[in-house]
Design brief:
It holds the Pfam family Acetyltransf_7. This protein is an alpha+beta fold. It has 9 helices and 12 strands.
């Protein structure tokens, strides 16, 4: 089949994206879905003959996402076409990344020579009033700007050698942005857990807002303090405090993070994974 790529109109591309791309992130409304790409000029149509077969988002020399337009689906042949376009148009010499790949698209990418890099999912749970408690050896208090360096240290140590590990300095930069924008009411739902005796920060749960609904911005417990119910206590506190104003709490989890089992145990529902793939020139 012969394919060709045509630049799309922002408004029309946003409507098609909202209709045909799976809402794994639990975006709460049609407006939220159409706003995701409404300011981007990186949307294109893939035509098969005279038919509009797919939409593709091509930001920053990558395949940002692709969706089939009924009755068409994403095939290996179509991914090969996008790969050839990327390498010839962008003069890539080493690799091409593809993000936000849906479960049903994985085989097409693999058959086109891409390899899996990682996966991430959004999970959702109703807020509610719970009987909350914390281990008597710890104390829970509200996060403050003065805690930033200690919180960053917790994230750095807790995420080390895991799927969410990041470069030094990133945690501190993220915390500056967090405290610059977080509303006071969400700090009340957040936690800094300290060892009652040593005053060491043992765990942290930060709640933010995303698309009008609360989101677990980051949650972590140091290795030596795990197994004492601290993560569950922080989540239960957040669910209880947020229930007065918000119907649900969302969070993101990377495949390979053992916390996913804890989230499922606490009733969080997965919307499905988005996958990251990469094609490398041998």
């Amino acid at each position: 089949m012969e394919y060709r790529l045509v630049k799309s109109d922002r408004t029309m591309f946003s409507k098609y994206f909202a209709t045909y791309y799976k809402n794994n992130w639990f975006r709460p409304s049609w407006d939220d879905l159409t706003k995701v790409l409404s300011n981007s000029d990186d949307g294109y149509w893939v035509f098969a003959g005279d038919d509009k077969a797919a939409g593709v988002y091509l930001p920053d020399l990558s395949i940002g996402l692709v969706f089939g337009i009924s009755p068409y689906s994403i095939t290996t042949e179509l991914i090969h076409f996008l790969k050839r376009h990327a390498f010839t148009t962008w003069n890539l010499t080493k690799e091409l990344h593809a993000y936000n790949v849906l479960d049903e698209q994985e085989s097409a990418y693999r058959d086109a020579g891409f390899v899996w890099v990682g996966s991430r999912q959004c999970m959702l749970r109703p807020t509610e009033q719970l009987e909350t408690s914390i281990n008597i050896n710890y104390v829970d208090r509200r996060p403050a700007i003065e805690d930033m360096s200690r919180i960053a240290e917790v994230f750095s140590k807790a995420y080390a050698n895991g799927p969410d590990e990041r470069e030094e300095g990133v945690y501190a930069d993220d915390l500056v942005r967090y405290f610059d924008h977080v509303p006071e009411k969400l700090l009340k739902a957040s936690s800094v857990i300290c060892d009652r005796t040593t005053e060491e920060v043992a765990g942290v749960c930060l709640i933010s807002i995303w698309e009008g609904l609360p989101l677990v911005y980051s949650i972590a417990v140091l290795q030596q303090h795990r197994g004492k119910g601290l993560a569950i206590a922080m989540l239960e506190k957040a669910l209880t405090v947020l229930e007065l104003e918000y119907p649900v709490l969302r969070l993101f989890v990377t495949r390979g993070n053992q916390a996913e089992l804890l989230y499922r145990k606490k009733g969080f529902l997965s919307g499905g994974e988005y996958h990251h793939y990469k094609y490398t020139i041998e």
